[in-house]
Amino acid sequence: MLIAARDVTKTYPTADGPLTVLGGVSLTLDRGETLALTGESGSGKSTLLHLLAALDTADAGEIEVAGAALSGLSDAGRAALRREKIGLIFQQFNLIPSLDAGANLAFQARLAGRHDPDWCATLAGRLGLTDVLSRYPEQLSGGQQQRVAIGRALAARPQVLMADEPTGNLDEASSDRVAALMLELVAETGAGLLLVTHSERLAARAGRRLHLSGGRLAGAGTHARGAAE
Amino acid sequence: MTRTALAALLSHWRRRPGQLATLLMGLALATALWSAVQAINAEARASYDRAAGELGLSGLDALVRPGEPLAVVDFVALRRAGWLVSPVLEGRVAVGAGPPVSVLGVDFLSAPPGALPAGLAGLGEGEEPALLFTAPGVAFAAPALAERLRQAAPAGWPEIRADAAVPPGQVLTDIGAAERMLARPGEIDRLLILPDQPRARPPLAEVAPGLVREAGREQGEIARLTSSFHLNLTAFGLLSFAVGLFIVHGAIGLAVEQRRGTVRTLRALGLPTARLVALLLAEVVVLALVAGAAGVALGYVIAAALLPDVAATLRGLYGASVPGVLSFDPGWAAAGLAMALAGALVAAGQGLWRVARLPVLEAARPRAWATVSGRALRRQAGAGAVLLVAGIAAPLVAGGLGAGFALLAGLLLGAALTLPLALSAALALGAARARRPLTQWFWADTRQQLPGLSLALMALMLALAANIGVSTMVGSFRLTFTGWLDQRLAADLYARAGSGAEAEAIRGFAEARGAGLLPTAEVEARLDGAPGTIRGITDHPLYARSWPLLSSAPEVWTRVARGEAALVNEQLARRAGLAPGDPVGLGPGWALPIAGIYSDYGNPRGEAMVALPALQARFPQAVARDFGLVAPAGTGADALRAALVAETPLTEGAVIDQAHVKQISLAVFERTFAVTGALNVLTLAVAGVAMLTALLTLATMRLPQLAPVWALGLTRARLGRLDMARSSLLAALTFAAALPLGLAVAWALLAVVNVEAFGWRLPMHLFPRDWAVLLALSVAAALLAALVPARRLARTPPAAFLKVFADER
User: Fold this and answer.
1) Does the beta-carbon distance from B268 to A84 stay under 8 Å?
2) How far, in Å, CA of B138 to CA of B176, rounded?
């Protein structure tokens, strides 16, 4: 099991009192599995992804990622988990503006001490980036930037890939191309994929899907395996 | 991991070399000005230490014959009678084209222990001591002078050896060699009295009836006198450093803010926070050390350029001998680096703190570096007001130079902190009065730029206020000093007699020619407990007509002439809290009421004036050697001078006319403030750089604000011109704020700091023409600083503007 979350809750303080964003969410993700997490804006899907990616801490419940219980990890331990086991893809790409596309693509692999130039070159080729590796992010289109971000997430050969609205900033055609590439590469590497999206088109490409509403997992697609399990 | 993360952080600078250069330049300039001042101070202090080691001459009592040199027979008689004395002969002699050289002749055998310069190498190992005493002898001089003398010394001079322990400008040798060098065979200036004397020895009056015992001067007096001058320099150095730090703070703060996205990504990708902060800290340290090293090197160059003027100032004001050549001292270099490091860390502290506390999920776009809430502005202005009040209160609750500088610091920092709020209010007023839409946008947009520019504008205001303050002080001083010289130097000629015979010749000449004669004699004495000088004068109407009295009792000159009262200088009056009518102690058992107080600029010591006969009654050795001569009607000063030289044994050099004395005094004055002026200009230049930096960095963040206005129909060129107008407006508004602050600084310098540091107070004069020049300069500097970003804006391709809208989708 790559991810196992049990009864995860998260509450934020607001001017009108505490706001429960996640109220006891449980889910699992296996190796090689692709899971789409859908929901309306404000349903808590990004918050759940942030908790699973060890970017934030839950108020209650248990989360295990790649065999590590997040509640027992220090800040440095969570950083090491993100660095070595998780690949993250953001809606805003979050490339490092002062590094060129090639350096951005290889960045996390270098950070984790697992840089493989051949694999990076393969990824660049598969993602159609070979000709733009020396360009800086500001010189790339949105689709190109997102492909670099996908390459960066996969270059370190993570056990699990987590993507937050990875095509949210792209037009439909680019979105389809990027999604296809991402799923193809994830399948090749054998990593698990957790995909947060509000796009039905993208969610339909995942092997399994869960729907989050009002901070709780609700009935999802026929192939869902959510809290009830 | 560390290397990869560091490379990512450093790549920011690779992509923004201009920003890196600005940061390094700001820090280097700030360090340079600070270390230049430290280098100058260190050099001067080393000179004082060397001077203090000089034979211990000034500290020892000595025997002299008033108005005449001593002879070898006096020395022999005293030694035979058991008096432990050591002869000294000193004088100045011209050598080649350079300045005259001071020759100090001592008797190496009888000189008091520890009196020779500390660390004097002397003769080499195995050399016969007789080398010192037998012609031609050996003389020691500081390396630079030794080198010069080896080229230019006349025949018959002793062998010159370099010895760093000898004070600069001086040659130390055996008294026999000194007699030959000074062409004064058989003469002795004074006999130093060794501290430990045998108990049973005949009284002085018995052994050498004509000799007078002269008290030694206090050790370290020069260091004490000059400390205020050095404190002034240090304060200026700190001000320059503070102005430089504004640049560094802006550049580092901006760099941290611009990298918020990178920082967030690094954290999200698994770089621990502690490692990230450590890397940023290491980056700041490395940058500070690189810039600091460059700053120290630049500081050395500046100090070397300024040192001759400082040396002239110290010589002119205090008689302190400081070489005009700078030597490298690791101490101030290390202090300069430490200041650069500390300054950079202070400047980076806030940014690093934010990074350490930044939640990993914080929005990645640069937080509004260039925006600040109105509440924060008011809070900052509140802190400024507290500083202003504290500064103003400092001289009221505590005295001393420290309180004076606290006043200056409170004024400058307090006003700087309140500046952004004041400018914001002024711009809001402008916006409220604007009618046309473009004008309204201009005022509102200018106000929006204010937070991003406020550090640079604060630096500019500090530099402008310091400039106005210091130039007002110097200008006021110059006006007052010129008028004072006219009063003080009322005689046409000034002559110095080398002997009693020459003094008599001058008297006879004046009588024969019908010229007015103003003889004066001086003695060193303790005035109200502190070392000072008593000047004896004769009755002459010229004094009543022109002597610069600040306050006086009735019949001042009549009472002084009768020996019933004394005049004291302003320094003594302020130090001892004396006023006309109070008694002043002039030595053991002698006190006179004060008839008046006179201004005495440029003299750091206390001084009293009494009637010459009264002085001679108390101090028999007080022989009149200095004479002022007033030309009779129909005779010019030049003719009188020519006749004096022709008809008396006086040499050309012993007679000086009034115009020449004034010229020399004014030259000393100008050089005194040359250093301050140079530091002033450099500080202003640093502020200009701060402005350029801020505008350049803001320009990179301006596109999203300008794109909508461009889309609505303004050309890029017009936007560029508006940006230049905006810079000029802000510079002019800043100048308007700096002017009253500068005048307050001038008042603080004249009425508080000068009084504490030098003992005199000057009237304040205003110089509106200088202000107009400064206003023009600051607007020109702002225009120049805005030119590059404005040109860049005018040439920005439309695609870049369109990208703003594309990114917003």
Assistant:
1) no
2) 11
CA distance B728 to B736: 12
Q: Which two tokens stand for residue B698?
A: 């803001």
The pair of three-digit structure tokens given for residue A220, joined into one six-digit string:
């999802």
Q: Is the pLDDT of residue B52 over 60?
A: no
Q: Is the pLDDT of residue B557 over 70?
A: yes
**Residue A34: what are its φ and ψ, rounded to 5°?**
-120, 125
Nearest-angstrom CA–CA distance, A107 and B7:
10
> In the prediction, which pLDDT does B803 show?
67
Q: Which residue has the higher pLDDT, B487 or B637?
A: B637
Residue B168 has pLDDT above 70, yes or no: no
Candidate from A94, A110, A111 with C-beta closest to B261: A94
Helices H / strands E in chain A, number of each: 7, 10
Is some CB atom of chain A closer than 8 A to the CB atom of B18? no
Whether the predicted pLDDT of B351 surpasses 80: no
Task: Say whether pLDDT at A223 is over 60.
Answer: no
How is chain B split among helix, strand and coil, in percent rounded to 5?
Answer: 65, 15, 25
The string of pLDDT tens digits covering residues A50-78 is: 899 988 889 999 999 999 999 988 888 88
Report d(CA B104, CA B166) in Å as an integer: 11
From the list A55, A92, A99, the residue facing B8 with the nearest CB is A99
Give the integer Cα–Cα distance in Å for B262 and B259: 5
pLDDT in tens, B259-317: 878 888 888 888 888 898 899 899 989 999 999 999 999 988 888 888 777 776 666 55
Contact call for B1 and A56, based on CB within 8 A: no
Q: Which H or E element spans position B124?
A: none
Query: Which pLDDT belongs to residue A228?
Result: 37
Distance from CA of A78 to the nearest CA of B (A): 7
> Distance, in angstroms, between A147 CA and closest chain B CA?
16
Q: Do A111 and B11 touch (CB under 8 A)?
A: no
CA dihedral B120, B124, B127, B132 (to 10 degrees): -30
* Domain covering A32-57+74-206 in this structure, CATH number: 3.40.50.300
In chain A, residues with a C-beta closer than 8 Å to the C-beta of B7 are 103
* Domain spans of chain A, in order of start: 32-57+74-206
CA dihedral B80, B81, B85, B86 (to 10 degrees): -20
Mean pLDDT of B139-152: 84
- Residue in A96, A112, A136 closest to B8 by CB: A96
Mean pLDDT across A115-144: 90
CB contacts of B262 in chain A (<8 Å) are 96-98
Q: Which amino acid is at B727?
A: S
CB atoms under 10 Å from CB of B781, counted, come to 22
Interface of A with B in 130-149 (CB under 8 A): 136
Please report, rounded to a whole number, the percentage of residues in chain B having pLDDT higher than 90.
Answer: 13
State the smallest CA–CA distance between residue A168 and chain B in angstroms.
11
**Measured distance CA(B456)–CA(B107) in Å, rounded:** 63
For chain B, helix (H) and strand (E) counts, in that order, are: 26, 20
Instruction: Identify the residue among B20, B262, B269, B277 best suited for mutation to test binding to A, counting A beta carbons within 10 A and taking the highest.
Output: B269
Cβ–Cβ gap B272/A110 under 8 Å: no
Substitution target from A85, A98, A162 for chain B, most B beta carbons within 10 A: A98
pLDDT tens for B12-30 read 888 888 778 878 887 888 8
Average pLDDT over residues B174-197: 84
Determine the pLDDT at residue B408.
87
Whole-angstrom distance, CA of residue B452 vs CA of residue B727: 12
> How many A×B Cβ pairs under 8 Å?
78
Residues on chain A touching B269 (C-beta within 8 angstroms)? 82-83, 88, 107-108, 111, 152
Contact B270 A111 (CB under 8 A): yes
